[in-house]
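Job type: complex structure
Entries:
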Amino acid sequence: MAYRAISGIGEFGLIDKIAALAEPTLHTVQNLITGIGDDCAVYQPSAGLLQVATTDMLVEQVHFDLLTTPLKLLGSKSISVNVSDICAMNALPRYALISIAVPASFSVEMIEALYEGMAYAATEYGVAIAGGDTSSSRSGLVISVSMIGEVSAEQLTHRSGAKPGELICVSGTLGGSAAGLKLLMREKEIMLEHIENNEPYNKSTMADLKEYSNAFQNHLSPIARLDIVRLLHSKNIRPSSMIDISDGLSSDLQHICRSSNTGALVHEGRIPIHPGTRRIAEELQDDALTWALTGGEDYQLLFTISKKEYEAIADNKDIAVIGETTDKEEGLLLSDIYGMTIDLRTVKGFDHFSS
Ligand code: ADP
Ligand code: MG
Protein backbone atom coordinates (compact mmCIF):
# COMPACT_ATOMS: atom_id res chain seq x y z
CA MET A 1 0.00 0.00 0.00
CA ALA A 2 1.34 3.42 -0.94
CA TYR A 3 1.27 5.98 1.84
CA ARG A 4 0.60 9.62 1.12
CA ALA A 5 3.14 12.17 2.32
CA ILE A 6 1.64 14.97 4.43
CA SER A 7 3.59 17.48 2.30
CA GLY A 8 1.34 16.40 -0.59
CA ILE A 9 -1.79 17.81 1.07
CA GLY A 10 -0.15 20.51 3.25
CA GLU A 11 -1.13 21.78 6.71
CA PHE A 12 -4.60 22.94 5.68
CA GLY A 13 -5.33 19.74 3.78
CA LEU A 14 -4.35 17.84 6.91
CA ILE A 15 -6.55 20.01 9.15
CA ASP A 16 -9.47 19.41 6.75
CA LYS A 17 -8.96 15.67 7.17
CA ILE A 18 -8.74 16.05 10.94
CA ALA A 19 -11.91 18.17 10.94
CA ALA A 20 -13.78 15.49 9.01
CA LEU A 21 -12.64 12.77 11.41
CA ALA A 22 -13.54 14.89 14.46
CA GLU A 23 -16.92 15.94 13.07
CA PRO A 24 -18.96 13.03 14.54
CA THR A 25 -17.74 13.92 18.04
CA LEU A 26 -19.37 17.37 17.80
CA HIS A 27 -22.82 15.80 17.98
CA THR A 28 -22.10 14.24 21.37
CA VAL A 29 -22.21 17.64 23.11
CA GLN A 30 -25.20 19.99 23.08
CA ASN A 31 -23.55 23.17 24.35
CA LEU A 32 -20.85 23.43 21.68
CA ILE A 33 -21.71 26.35 19.40
CA THR A 34 -18.63 26.39 17.13
CA GLY A 35 -16.21 23.51 16.61
CA ILE A 36 -13.23 23.21 14.27
CA GLY A 37 -12.95 25.84 11.53
CA ASP A 38 -12.86 29.23 13.21
CA ASP A 39 -10.25 31.02 15.30
CA CYS A 40 -11.78 29.70 18.53
CA ALA A 41 -14.15 26.99 19.61
CA VAL A 42 -17.29 28.42 21.26
CA TYR A 43 -19.00 26.69 24.15
CA GLN A 44 -21.99 27.72 26.24
CA PRO A 45 -21.30 26.64 29.85
CA SER A 46 -24.25 24.92 31.53
CA ALA A 47 -26.08 27.20 33.97
CA GLY A 48 -24.94 26.82 37.55
CA LEU A 49 -22.08 24.41 36.87
CA LEU A 50 -18.38 24.93 37.48
CA GLN A 51 -15.85 24.22 34.73
CA VAL A 52 -12.75 22.10 35.28
CA ALA A 53 -9.79 22.11 32.90
CA THR A 54 -6.86 19.77 32.41
CA THR A 55 -4.13 19.14 29.88
CA ASP A 56 -1.86 16.18 29.24
CA MET A 57 1.03 15.80 26.87
CA LEU A 58 2.17 12.53 25.29
CA VAL A 59 5.71 12.65 23.91
CA GLU A 60 7.23 9.98 21.68
CA GLN A 61 10.01 8.03 23.45
CA VAL A 62 8.93 9.48 26.81
CA HIS A 63 5.34 8.25 27.02
CA PHE A 64 5.10 5.88 24.09
CA ASP A 65 7.15 3.92 21.61
CA LEU A 66 5.68 3.74 18.12
CA LEU A 67 7.29 0.33 17.62
CA THR A 68 4.88 -1.12 20.18
CA THR A 69 1.97 1.34 20.00
CA PRO A 70 -0.70 1.24 17.30
CA LEU A 71 -1.61 4.85 16.44
CA LYS A 72 -5.32 4.26 16.75
CA LEU A 73 -4.89 3.10 20.35
CA LEU A 74 -2.51 5.99 21.04
CA GLY A 75 -5.26 8.35 19.85
CA SER A 76 -7.85 6.82 22.14
CA LYS A 77 -5.40 6.76 25.07
CA SER A 78 -4.61 10.46 24.65
CA ILE A 79 -8.33 11.16 25.11
CA SER A 80 -8.78 8.65 27.96
CA VAL A 81 -5.96 10.04 30.12
CA ASN A 82 -7.57 13.48 30.04
CA VAL A 83 -11.06 12.13 30.69
CA SER A 84 -9.54 10.30 33.67
CA ASP A 85 -8.29 13.60 35.15
CA ILE A 86 -11.73 15.16 34.68
CA CYS A 87 -13.31 12.11 36.36
CA ALA A 88 -10.93 12.50 39.30
CA MET A 89 -12.66 15.85 40.06
CA ASN A 90 -15.99 13.99 39.96
CA ALA A 91 -16.80 16.01 36.83
CA LEU A 92 -18.10 15.09 33.37
CA PRO A 93 -15.89 15.77 30.31
CA ARG A 94 -17.35 18.06 27.61
CA TYR A 95 -14.85 19.16 24.99
CA ALA A 96 -11.20 18.82 23.99
CA LEU A 97 -8.61 20.88 22.13
CA ILE A 98 -5.87 18.78 20.56
CA SER A 99 -2.43 19.96 19.49
CA ILE A 100 -0.06 17.75 17.56
CA ALA A 101 3.53 18.14 16.37
CA VAL A 102 4.15 15.69 13.55
CA PRO A 103 7.53 14.39 12.28
CA ALA A 104 8.19 14.59 8.54
CA SER A 105 8.28 10.79 8.35
CA PHE A 106 4.56 10.57 9.12
CA SER A 107 2.06 9.79 6.39
CA VAL A 108 -1.49 11.08 6.03
CA GLU A 109 -2.70 7.58 6.91
CA MET A 110 -0.88 7.66 10.24
CA ILE A 111 -2.61 10.89 11.30
CA GLU A 112 -5.90 9.42 10.12
CA ALA A 113 -5.35 6.37 12.34
CA LEU A 114 -4.48 8.61 15.28
CA TYR A 115 -7.65 10.70 14.87
CA GLU A 116 -9.84 7.67 14.26
CA GLY A 117 -8.82 6.47 17.73
CA MET A 118 -9.35 9.94 19.22
CA ALA A 119 -12.78 10.34 17.62
CA TYR A 120 -13.83 6.86 18.68
CA ALA A 121 -12.88 7.44 22.33
CA ALA A 122 -14.29 10.99 22.38
CA THR A 123 -17.64 9.73 21.09
CA GLU A 124 -17.70 6.97 23.73
CA TYR A 125 -17.11 9.51 26.53
CA GLY A 126 -19.36 12.20 25.05
CA VAL A 127 -16.50 14.63 24.40
CA ALA A 128 -16.46 17.01 21.41
CA ILE A 129 -13.11 17.50 19.67
CA ALA A 130 -13.59 21.24 19.27
CA GLY A 131 -10.24 22.45 17.95
CA GLY A 132 -6.49 22.28 18.22
CA ASP A 133 -3.25 23.18 16.54
CA THR A 134 -0.97 21.44 14.06
CA SER A 135 2.77 21.81 13.69
CA SER A 136 5.66 19.89 12.20
CA SER A 137 8.19 18.31 14.57
CA ARG A 138 11.96 18.02 14.16
CA SER A 139 12.00 15.12 16.61
CA GLY A 140 9.22 12.73 17.56
CA LEU A 141 5.43 12.90 17.62
CA VAL A 142 3.95 15.10 20.37
CA ILE A 143 0.26 15.03 21.27
CA SER A 144 -1.13 17.56 23.70
CA VAL A 145 -4.78 17.29 24.68
CA SER A 146 -6.59 19.91 26.76
CA MET A 147 -10.00 19.09 28.11
CA ILE A 148 -12.83 20.99 29.77
CA GLY A 149 -15.45 19.36 31.96
CA GLU A 150 -18.35 20.44 34.13
CA VAL A 151 -19.47 19.71 37.67
CA SER A 152 -21.79 21.22 40.26
CA ALA A 153 -20.23 22.85 43.32
CA GLU A 154 -21.86 20.12 45.45
CA GLN A 155 -20.19 17.31 43.51
CA LEU A 156 -16.78 18.84 42.89
CA THR A 157 -14.15 16.63 44.57
CA HIS A 158 -10.56 17.64 45.37
CA ARG A 159 -7.60 15.63 46.58
CA SER A 160 -7.76 17.51 49.85
CA GLY A 161 -11.01 16.55 51.57
CA ALA A 162 -10.16 13.22 53.26
CA LYS A 163 -10.56 12.95 57.05
CA PRO A 164 -9.18 10.30 59.42
CA GLY A 165 -11.45 7.28 59.85
CA GLU A 166 -12.79 7.14 56.28
CA LEU A 167 -12.64 4.27 53.82
CA ILE A 168 -10.08 4.21 51.01
CA CYS A 169 -11.62 2.80 47.83
CA VAL A 170 -10.26 1.92 44.42
CA SER A 171 -12.18 1.09 41.24
CA GLY A 172 -11.36 -1.83 38.95
CA THR A 173 -8.01 -3.60 39.15
CA LEU A 174 -4.37 -2.50 39.30
CA GLY A 175 -1.12 -3.70 37.79
CA GLY A 176 -2.55 -4.69 34.40
CA SER A 177 -1.05 -1.71 32.61
CA ALA A 178 2.44 -2.40 33.97
CA ALA A 179 2.10 -6.06 32.95
CA GLY A 180 1.14 -5.02 29.42
CA LEU A 181 4.05 -2.57 29.21
CA LYS A 182 6.62 -5.14 30.43
CA LEU A 183 5.37 -7.66 27.88
CA LEU A 184 5.52 -5.11 25.07
CA MET A 185 9.08 -4.24 26.03
CA ARG A 186 10.01 -7.92 26.00
CA GLU A 187 8.47 -8.43 22.55
CA LYS A 188 10.26 -5.35 21.25
CA GLU A 189 13.61 -6.75 22.45
CA ILE A 190 12.88 -10.05 20.71
CA MET A 191 11.93 -8.27 17.50
CA LEU A 192 15.07 -6.10 17.52
CA GLU A 193 17.21 -9.18 18.12
CA HIS A 194 15.65 -10.89 15.10
CA ILE A 195 16.29 -7.84 12.96
CA GLU A 196 19.87 -7.57 14.19
CA ASN A 197 20.53 -11.23 13.38
CA ASN A 198 18.81 -10.93 10.02
CA GLU A 199 16.18 -13.47 11.05
CA PRO A 200 12.57 -13.16 9.98
CA TYR A 201 10.17 -11.70 12.55
CA ASN A 202 6.64 -12.45 11.51
CA LYS A 203 3.54 -14.33 12.60
CA SER A 204 5.28 -17.71 12.29
CA THR A 205 8.29 -16.77 14.46
CA MET A 206 6.39 -14.58 16.94
CA ALA A 207 5.16 -15.99 20.24
CA ASP A 208 1.40 -16.38 20.42
CA LEU A 209 0.45 -13.17 22.17
CA LYS A 210 -3.29 -13.74 22.26
CA GLU A 211 -3.28 -14.83 25.89
CA TYR A 212 -1.77 -11.45 26.80
CA SER A 213 -4.26 -9.35 24.87
CA ASN A 214 -6.01 -8.21 28.03
CA ALA A 215 -2.78 -6.88 29.57
CA PHE A 216 -1.84 -5.15 26.28
CA GLN A 217 -5.28 -3.59 26.22
CA ASN A 218 -4.83 -2.24 29.74
CA HIS A 219 -1.63 -0.51 28.80
CA LEU A 220 -2.35 0.61 25.26
CA SER A 221 -6.00 1.46 25.57
CA PRO A 222 -7.04 2.18 29.16
CA ILE A 223 -10.64 3.18 29.80
CA ALA A 224 -11.31 6.19 32.06
CA ARG A 225 -13.83 5.44 34.81
CA LEU A 226 -16.56 7.84 33.75
CA ASP A 227 -18.98 5.04 34.69
CA ILE A 228 -17.90 5.37 38.35
CA VAL A 229 -18.45 9.14 38.27
CA ARG A 230 -21.91 8.58 36.81
CA LEU A 231 -22.61 6.01 39.53
CA LEU A 232 -21.58 8.47 42.27
CA HIS A 233 -23.79 11.16 40.73
CA SER A 234 -26.74 8.80 40.40
CA LYS A 235 -26.46 7.81 44.09
CA ASN A 236 -26.03 11.44 45.03
CA ILE A 237 -22.89 10.75 47.03
CA ARG A 238 -19.61 12.57 46.95
CA PRO A 239 -16.23 11.11 47.90
CA SER A 240 -14.37 13.27 50.41
CA SER A 241 -11.30 13.18 48.14
CA MET A 242 -10.40 11.60 44.81
CA ILE A 243 -7.49 11.15 42.36
CA ASP A 244 -6.95 9.00 39.30
CA ILE A 245 -4.17 6.43 39.45
CA SER A 246 -1.68 7.57 36.84
CA ASP A 247 1.57 7.26 38.83
CA GLY A 248 0.72 4.17 40.90
CA LEU A 249 -1.40 3.53 44.01
CA SER A 250 1.48 4.30 46.35
CA SER A 251 2.28 7.75 44.88
CA ASP A 252 -1.32 8.71 44.24
CA LEU A 253 -2.45 7.81 47.76
CA GLN A 254 0.44 9.90 49.05
CA HIS A 255 -0.93 12.83 47.04
CA ILE A 256 -4.32 12.45 48.72
CA CYS A 257 -2.80 12.12 52.20
CA ARG A 258 -0.49 15.08 51.75
CA SER A 259 -3.28 17.32 50.41
CA SER A 260 -5.73 16.15 53.10
CA ASN A 261 -3.31 16.06 56.04
CA THR A 262 -4.12 12.46 56.93
CA GLY A 263 -2.31 9.16 57.19
CA ALA A 264 -3.47 5.88 55.65
CA LEU A 265 -3.44 2.18 56.34
CA VAL A 266 -3.77 -0.07 53.27
CA HIS A 267 -4.24 -3.84 53.50
CA GLU A 268 -2.18 -5.71 50.93
CA GLY A 269 -4.67 -8.56 50.67
CA ARG A 270 -7.44 -6.17 49.64
CA ILE A 271 -5.62 -4.54 46.72
CA PRO A 272 -7.42 -5.73 43.58
CA ILE A 273 -4.63 -7.06 41.36
CA HIS A 274 -5.56 -7.34 37.71
CA PRO A 275 -6.34 -10.98 36.78
CA GLY A 276 -3.53 -12.54 34.79
CA THR A 277 -1.00 -10.07 36.16
CA ARG A 278 0.40 -12.42 38.81
CA ARG A 279 1.11 -15.04 36.17
CA ILE A 280 2.74 -12.53 33.84
CA ALA A 281 4.84 -11.22 36.75
CA GLU A 282 5.96 -14.76 37.53
CA GLU A 283 6.84 -15.36 33.90
CA LEU A 284 8.93 -12.18 33.84
CA GLN A 285 10.35 -12.86 37.32
CA ASP A 286 8.84 -9.70 38.69
CA ASP A 287 6.31 -8.84 41.38
CA ALA A 288 2.63 -8.17 40.70
CA LEU A 289 2.10 -6.25 43.97
CA THR A 290 4.94 -3.87 43.12
CA TRP A 291 3.36 -3.30 39.71
CA ALA A 292 0.00 -2.57 41.37
CA LEU A 293 1.64 -0.14 43.82
CA THR A 294 4.06 1.63 41.52
CA GLY A 295 3.37 0.66 37.90
CA GLY A 296 0.89 3.45 37.24
CA GLU A 297 -1.17 4.16 34.15
CA ASP A 298 -4.05 2.00 35.36
CA TYR A 299 -6.34 5.07 35.27
CA GLN A 300 -8.57 3.75 38.00
CA LEU A 301 -10.14 6.10 40.54
CA LEU A 302 -8.80 6.18 44.09
CA PHE A 303 -11.11 7.90 46.57
CA THR A 304 -11.94 8.28 50.23
CA ILE A 305 -15.49 8.22 51.50
CA SER A 306 -17.22 8.26 54.88
CA LYS A 307 -18.44 4.86 56.10
CA LYS A 308 -22.01 6.11 55.98
CA GLU A 309 -21.84 7.32 52.37
CA TYR A 310 -20.08 4.12 51.33
CA GLU A 311 -23.21 2.11 52.17
CA ALA A 312 -24.86 3.41 48.98
CA ILE A 313 -22.17 1.79 46.78
CA ALA A 314 -21.26 -1.18 48.98
CA ASP A 315 -22.88 -3.67 46.59
CA ASN A 316 -20.73 -2.56 43.65
CA LYS A 317 -18.28 -5.36 42.85
CA ASP A 318 -16.05 -3.01 40.87
CA ILE A 319 -15.15 -0.87 43.89
CA ALA A 320 -12.80 -2.34 46.50
CA VAL A 321 -12.22 -0.98 50.01
CA ILE A 322 -8.46 -1.30 50.45
CA GLY A 323 -7.95 0.49 53.77
CA GLU A 324 -8.76 3.44 56.00
CA THR A 325 -7.49 6.96 56.42
CA THR A 326 -5.78 7.60 59.76
CA ASP A 327 -4.29 10.52 61.69
CA LYS A 328 -1.40 12.12 59.90
CA GLU A 329 1.02 11.06 62.68
CA GLU A 330 0.38 7.39 61.88
CA GLY A 331 2.02 7.81 58.47
CA LEU A 332 1.25 5.81 55.33
CA LEU A 333 1.30 2.12 56.05
CA LEU A 334 0.84 -1.05 54.03
CA SER A 335 0.01 -4.09 56.14
CA ASP A 336 0.79 -7.45 54.56
CA ILE A 337 -1.21 -10.65 54.89
CA TYR A 338 0.68 -11.51 58.11
CA GLY A 339 -0.10 -8.11 59.67
CA MET A 340 3.44 -6.75 59.27
CA THR A 341 3.46 -3.11 58.19
CA ILE A 342 5.83 -1.24 55.90
CA ASP A 343 6.02 2.46 55.07
CA LEU A 344 4.23 3.03 51.75
CA ARG A 345 6.45 6.03 51.09
CA THR A 346 9.38 3.70 50.53
CA VAL A 347 7.51 2.24 47.52
CA LYS A 348 7.96 4.71 44.68
CA GLY A 349 5.79 5.37 41.61
CA PHE A 350 6.86 6.86 38.30
CA ASP A 351 8.67 10.20 38.45
CA HIS A 352 9.80 11.82 35.19
CA PHE A 353 12.77 13.52 36.81
CA SER A 354 14.20 10.82 39.02
CA SER A 355 16.66 8.39 37.50
P1 ADP B 1 -5.19 29.46 13.44
O1 ADP B 1 -4.16 29.75 12.43
O2 ADP B 1 -6.24 30.51 13.61
O3 ADP B 1 -4.63 28.97 14.74
P2 ADP B 1 -5.47 26.87 12.28
O4 ADP B 1 -5.34 26.98 10.82
O5 ADP B 1 -4.31 26.41 13.09
O6 ADP B 1 -6.05 28.24 12.84
O7 ADP B 1 -6.68 25.90 12.62
C1 ADP B 1 -7.91 25.97 11.91
C2 ADP B 1 -8.97 25.24 12.70
O8 ADP B 1 -8.61 23.88 12.84
C3 ADP B 1 -9.16 25.77 14.12
O9 ADP B 1 -10.54 25.67 14.43
C4 ADP B 1 -8.35 24.83 14.96
O10 ADP B 1 -8.87 24.75 16.28
C5 ADP B 1 -8.51 23.51 14.20
N1 ADP B 1 -7.35 22.60 14.32
C6 ADP B 1 -6.08 22.81 13.91
N2 ADP B 1 -5.29 21.76 14.18
C7 ADP B 1 -6.06 20.86 14.80
C8 ADP B 1 -5.83 19.56 15.35
N3 ADP B 1 -4.63 18.98 15.32
N4 ADP B 1 -6.88 18.91 15.92
C9 ADP B 1 -8.08 19.48 15.98
N5 ADP B 1 -8.37 20.67 15.48
C10 ADP B 1 -7.39 21.38 14.89
MG1 MG C 1 -3.20 27.38 14.63
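Summary: The longest strand covers residues 92-103. The mean pLDDT is 93.
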